[in-house]
Amino acid sequence: MLEKNNEISVIRNKQGKLEVTFNSDKPADLYWTTEADVNTNNKTLIGKALKSPVIFDDPLNAKSRIYLILQINDQKPFLFGERTLPINGLNNFRDFGGYVGAKGKRIKWGMLYRSNHLHDLKPDAQQYIKALNIKTIIDYRCENEVKTSPNCSIGEKQTFNLDASAQTAELAAQFAADPSNEDRALIESVLRDIPKELVNGDGIQVLEQYRNFVLSEKSKKAYREMLRVILDSNNSPSLQHCRGGKDRTGYGVLLIQVMLGVSESDIIYDYMLTHDNRLERNKIKMAAYREITDNEDVLGYLLSLIDTREIFINEVFDTMRKIAGSPSNYIKQELGFTDKDFEKMASIYLEA
Question: Hey, what CATH class is 83-349 in?
Answer without folding.
Answer: alpha beta
